[in-house]
Amino acid sequence: MNEPDIKKILIPTDFSPASLGVINAATALAKHNFAEITLLHVMDSVSASAPPFYMTVPGGAEYENNLREESNQQLELLATSIRNNGVNKVNVLSVPGNIYTEIGNVSKEIKADLIIMGTHGVSGYKEVFMGSNAQRVVTLSEIPVLTMQTGAKYEFKNILIPIDNSQHSNDKVAIAIKFAEIFASKIHILGLLPTEEREENVKFKIKLDAIVQAIHTANLAFVKTLENGEDLTEVALAYADKNNCDLIVINTGHESQTSGIFMGALAQRIVNHSKIPVLSVIPAEEAYIITTPGFGIS
Q: pLDDT tens digit string along 129-138?
């Protein structure tokens, strides 16, 4: 199991309380990993959707430049605060365009290892980090995305890894271990089987044992629990609430082979409205037979 390297963190922000609330978590991660942070603001610029002749119209380019200058000033204030808290390298970037598209483009350009974003942006500015934008960023991102709602804790002392009996990617476990090492967390391995599969099958047991071994090797505290239910998403969320879990790690980009867990509307509800931060990890391509783009917990 390869340990993920978090050296470049991208923080998209619209300067709302939700988007600013992720700064502390990003700072803690950056300090531990000697990582650099890039603060990104996608400007609500007319030129993003304007015809080609826009920039030749008197005032067009000036308006764009004024937006960029104002945005960069606000970003620099944030950057200074982050530097004062022990992160040596903080970059700022303002770009016009489509929100989720530019987040993806910039993450590739700077070769980011992790995106951290709020999920409850200010209404009136396209609800930047809610609804379809957060959903699309998480779904389309080629790197892990940590989404946090306003006021969410970032200590991550109890990390939940829900596991069902579909094929499993080590990527999710590896990054959960990385976070647990950084935040001195306890990992909760939650084995989930539908009600009709109450008896633990051999392959599922082997999978859980392998995860236990990986966490044990990392010398981390953990607990393993098995749960059954008709709606395994609700079972997982109920467990998280009962056990004070403050981070839940899911896979993205595939459909669970058993019950479509964390798919569709349920996935959107978790990413956009969960009070618990969600770390979404794209699985290795060879680990899954991808049938429907979406979310899974395997």
A: 445 677 778 8
Question: Which residues, in sequence order, are CB contacts of 22 under 8 Å at separation 6+?
Answer: 11, 116, 117, 118, 146, 148, 154
Global confidence as pTM:
0.83
Between vectors from CA 150 to CA 127 and to CA 135, what angle results, nearest 5°? 45
Angle, alpha carbons 182-281-92 (nearest 5°) = 70
CATH number at residue 269: 3.40.50.620
Task: Please give the Cα distance from 160 to 22 (Å, whole number).
Answer: 19
Choose one of 129, 148, 167: the last residue of a domain: 148
Helix (H, G, I), strand (E, B) or coil at 39: strand
Residue 150 DSSP code:
T
Band the pLDDT of 178: cuts 50, 70, 90: very high
